[in-house]
C-alpha cells in the first residue's frame, strides 16, 4: 500500500508527464521500493489502532450488556466505514482484516486437545462430523437455487456447522475473491451470531422439555449452537456436567476447522478457481499454526496459564479483525442482499439442530 509520500511523488510525475512527452524525453519510471518492516509498521499502525480501539469498545459493551462481542465489533466497525474509503487508515484496516485474522484463527488451536476429543467416545464424534459435513453440503446444494453462489453456500454452511463467526472468517480467507466477498462475509457473521444467541436461549429449554439426559443435552448443545461462548453459556446454565460435555463437543467442531478449510483450498486449486492449475496447494500458514498448537497442547507442553493467555489473545485478534472487516463494508451493501441468504442460514441451522437432536435421541 502506497504511503502519502509515494502518492505525492506519483502525482508530481503525472503533472510533468505531458512536458516530457512534448520534448521527446522518455518518461521516468522510478524503481520499485522494497518496504522495510519499520516502513510497513508505520503504514499499518493507524488502521490497526482504530480497529483495536473498536474491539476494546465492543468488548466493554459485550461485558456490560451481555450481547455477543463479535456483533458489537462488526456493527461499530461498519459505522466507521468512511475510514476505509481513503486516508492513512486504509492499509492498517486491510492488514487487520487479513493478517490479524489469520493469527487469531491459528491461535484457536490452543483451546483443543486430542484427549478432550477422544474422551467423548465414537458416537458423539461421528454425530458431529456428519452434522458439520452435511450442513456444508446443504449450503452448497441450496445456495445456487436461491440465487447465491456456491462459495456463499460453503461459507454459510461452514459458519453454521463449525464455529460461527470464527469459521466464517477462516473460510472466507481461502475462498475466491470477488466484489461481493466481503459483503457476504459480513452478512454471514451478523446472521450466524444472531442465530447463535437465539439458540443459546431456546435450546436449553428444548432439552429440558424433551427430558434429555445430561450427556444427551451436552452433545446436543455442543453439536448445534454456533459460537463457543454461546455453547458455554447454554451448557453451564443447565449444570456443570452438561457444560463440560457441551464444551468438549464444541471444541471437536472447532478442531474440524483446519481440515475443512484445507479441503476447500484443495478443491478450489483442482478446479482452477484460484489459478492453481490442478496442483494441491500447501496448507495456509495459519492452518499449520492451528494444527501445531493442537498437537503441542495435546502433548501437555502448554501450561494452563499460557494457554489461557493465548486463547485470550486469539479472541482479541478475531474481534479486531471483525472490526476491520466491518469498516470495509457499508450498511447499504448488506441491506441490499435481500432475504434469501438469511433464509439459507436459518435452514442450515434448522438442519444441523434437527439432525443432532434425532441422533442424540436414538443413539445416546
From TrEMBL:
The UniProt keywords, alphabetically, are: Cell membrane, Membrane, Transmembrane, Transmembrane helix
Keyword DNA damage in the entry? The reply is no
Q: Which Pfam families match?
A: Cons_hypoth698
Specify whether Iron is a keyword of the entry.
Answer: no
Main localization of the protein described in the UniProt heading: membrane
List the transmembrane segments. 43-61, 125-144, 151-174, 186-206, 251-273, 285-307, 313-331, 343-362
* Domain of life according to the entry: Bacteria
From the Swiss-Prot or TrEMBL record, state where the protein is found.
Cell membrane
Stated membrane topology is: Multi-pass membrane protein
Give the family per the record.
Belongs to the UPF0324 family.
The protein here is known as YeiH family protein
Amino acid at each position: 500500500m502506497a504511503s502519502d509520500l509515494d502518492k505525492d511523488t506519483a502525482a508530481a510525475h503525472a503533472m510533468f508527464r505531458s512536458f516530457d512527452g512534448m520534448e521527446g524525453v522518455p518518461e521516468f519510471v522510478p524503481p520499485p521500493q522494497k518496504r522495510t518492516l519499520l516502513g510497513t509498521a508505520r503504514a499499518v499502525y493507524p488502521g490497526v489502532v482504530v480497529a483495536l480501539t473498536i474491539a476494546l469498545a465492543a468488548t466493554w459493551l459485550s461485558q456490560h450488556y451481555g450481547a455477543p462481542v463479535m456483533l458489537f465489533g462488526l456493527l461499530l466497525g461498519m459505522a466507521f466505514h468512511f475510514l476505509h474509503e481513503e486516508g492513512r487508515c486504509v492499509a492498517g484496516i486491510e492488514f487487520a482484516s487479513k493478517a490479524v485474522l489469520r493469527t487469531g484463527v491459528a491461535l484457536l488451536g490452543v483451546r483443543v486437545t486430542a484427549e478432550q476429543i477422544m474422551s467423548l467416545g465414537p458416537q458423539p464424534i461421528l454425530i458431529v462430523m456428519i452434522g458439520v459435513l452435511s450442513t456444508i453440503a446443504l449450503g452448497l446444494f441450496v445456495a445456487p437455487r436461491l440465487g447465491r453462489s456456491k462459495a456463499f453456500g460453503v461459507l454459510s454452511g461452514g459458519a453454521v456447522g463449525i464455529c460461527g463467526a470464527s469459521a466464517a472468517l477462516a473460510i472466507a480467507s481461502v475462498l475466491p475473491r470477488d466484489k461481493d466477498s466481503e459483503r457476504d462475509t459480513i452478512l454471514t457473521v451478523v446472521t450466524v451470531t444472531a442465530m447463535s444467541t437465539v439458540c443459546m436461549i431456546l435450546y436449553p429449554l428444548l432439552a429440558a422439555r424433551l427430558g434429555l439426559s445430561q450427556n444427551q443435552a451436552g452433545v446436543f448443545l455442543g453439536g448445534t449452537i454456533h459460537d463457543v461462548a454461546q455453547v458455554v453459556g447454554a451448557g453451564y446454565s443447565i449444570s456443570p456436567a452438561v457444560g463440560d460435555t457441551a464444551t468438549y463437543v464444541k471444541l471437536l467442531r472447532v478442531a474440524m476447522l483446519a481440515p475443512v478449510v484445507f479441503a476447500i483450498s484443495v478443491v478450489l486449486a483442482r478446479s482452477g478457481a484460484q489459478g492453481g492449475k490442478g496442483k494441491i496447494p500447501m496448507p495456509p500458514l495459519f492452518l499449520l499454526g492451528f494444527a501445531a498448537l493442537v498437537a503441542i497442547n495435546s502433548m501437555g507442553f502448554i501450561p494452563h496459564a499460557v494457554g489461557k493467555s493465548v486463547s485470550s489473545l486469539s479472541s482479541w485478534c478475531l474481534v479486531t479483525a471483525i472490526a476491520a472487516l466491518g469498516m470495509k463494508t457499508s450498511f447499504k451493501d448488506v441491506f441490499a442482499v435481500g432475504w434469501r441468504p438469511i433464509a439459507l442460514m436459518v435452514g442450515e441451522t434448522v438442519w444441523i439442530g434437527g439432525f443432532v437432536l434425532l441422533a442424540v435421541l436414538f443413539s445416546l
